[in-house]
């Protein structure tokens, strides 16, 4: 209950309410973009400062390795479950969305953990960055395979008719688009700046990256609440089975992450963030990449489910639940 009284979460609820009653309240796109860039920059700096302080230890590498493992396990599970319920292209796209991560959910979780007196490692920002792309690459590989199979069947069934181009997308092209995306460049660059400048940089940038952070996050979550209210009706139009997947799958992914964290002996803070990352779904990076890389998939499906259902559930209920579970399993 205490998490619901956090000002940032309350502003998110306010945004949802304003959108639901069709209020004229809106955040100009330029302001929304600035808030997003600020939060990414602040997150990168925080992670870099903490990473410089803690160093690249074996524990850090173990935690990052666990994150990478989850980045491959989650989309593979998602595709295996979904491919019999929707088209294989849609299954690959939804699996990519749920296999990737939400930076806003991660930022909110970090703020929540700090409010609970739990200090996760700065290396979790590195884990977040690395977890974004594997699911996208897996989806593109699947899409290329599906196109090749369809083309082969078309050639087999009709030797006289022209066969359309396969639409093959190279992995190199997807990697370039993923890692040169503005958000990724800013996050990685800020992480490097924080790591190189260390404690001196932390002291200099504290008014920017620390003092303003809570207010900026609250402002951004107000905007996200408005967006959720706008896309929720779209998400509700999906089948009951897909809506159930959007609710249940994040909990399953978080449980798997908790089991892995317990097996590896991760700290409570790192385990909670690993659960959050595994349970979150991308509604920014994945739609931006798959819109061109996989035009056969329905954007309303993977975007609507992740933003309209999974994001608010994780933000309001998931983060405190994952933190509680991590404490129960790993504190003893």
UniProtKB/TrEMBL annotation:
<feature type="transmembrane region" description="Helical">
    <location>
        <begin position="125"/>
        <end position="146"/>
    </location>
</feature>
<feature type="transmembrane region" description="Helical">
    <location>
        <begin position="242"/>
        <end position="265"/>
    </location>
</feature>
<feature type="transmembrane region" description="Helical">
    <location>
        <begin position="302"/>
        <end position="325"/>
    </location>
</feature>
<feature type="transmembrane region" description="Helical">
    <location>
        <begin position="271"/>
        <end position="290"/>
    </location>
</feature>
<feature type="transmembrane region" description="Helical">
    <location>
        <begin position="89"/>
        <end position="113"/>
    </location>
</feature>
<keyword id="KW-0812">Transmembrane</keyword>
<protein>
    <submittedName>
        <fullName>Sodium-dependent bicarbonate transport family permease</fullName>
    </submittedName>
</protein>
<keyword id="KW-0472">Membrane</keyword>
<dbReference type="InterPro" id="IPR010293">
    <property type="entry name" value="Sbt_1"/>
</dbReference>
<feature type="transmembrane region" description="Helical">
    <location>
        <begin position="56"/>
        <end position="82"/>
    </location>
</feature>
<keyword id="KW-1133">Transmembrane helix</keyword>
<dbReference type="Pfam" id="PF05982">
    <property type="entry name" value="Sbt_1"/>
</dbReference>
């Amino acid at each position: 209950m205490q998490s619901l009284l956090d000002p940032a979460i309350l502003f998110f609820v306010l945004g949802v309410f304003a959108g639901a009653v069709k209020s004229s309240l809106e955040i100009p796109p330029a302001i929304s973009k600035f808030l997003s860039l600020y939060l990414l920059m602040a997150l990168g700096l925080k992670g870099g400062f903490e990473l410089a302080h803690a160093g690249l230890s074996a524990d850090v590498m173990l935690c990052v390795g666990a994150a990478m493992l989850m980045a491959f396990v989650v989309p593979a599970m998602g595709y295996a479950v979904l491919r019999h319920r929707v088209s294989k292209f849609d299954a690959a796209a939804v699996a990519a969305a749920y296999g990737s991560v939400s930076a806003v959910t991660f930022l909110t979780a970090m703020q929540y953990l700090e409010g609970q007196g739990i200090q996760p490692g700065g290396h979790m920002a590195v884990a977040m960055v690395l977890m974004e792309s594997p699911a996208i690459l897996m989806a593109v590989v699947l899409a290329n395979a599906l196109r090749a199979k369809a083309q082969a069947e078309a050639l087999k069934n009709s030797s006289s008719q022209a066969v359309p181009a396969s639409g093959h997308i190279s992995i190199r092209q997807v990697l370039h688009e993923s890692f040169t995306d503005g958000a990724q460049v800013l996050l990685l660059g800020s992480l490097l700046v924080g790591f190189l400048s260390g404690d001196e940089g932390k002291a200099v940038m504290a008014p920017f990256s620390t003092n303003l952070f809570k207010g900026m996050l609250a402002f951004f979550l107000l905007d996200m609440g408005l967006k959720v209210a706008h896309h929720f009706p779209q998400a509700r139009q999906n089948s009951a089975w897909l809506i159930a997947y959007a609710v249940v799958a994040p909990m399953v992914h978080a449980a798997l992450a908790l089991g892995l964290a317990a097996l590896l002996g991760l700290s409570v803070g790192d385990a909670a963030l690993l659960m959050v990352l595994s349970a979150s779904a991308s509604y920014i990076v994945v739609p931006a990449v798959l819109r061109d890389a996989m035009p056969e998939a329905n954007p309303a499906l993977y975007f609507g489910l992740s933003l309209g259902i999974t994001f608010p559930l994780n933000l309001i209920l998931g983060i405190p639940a994952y933190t509680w579970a991590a404490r129960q399993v790993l504190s003893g």
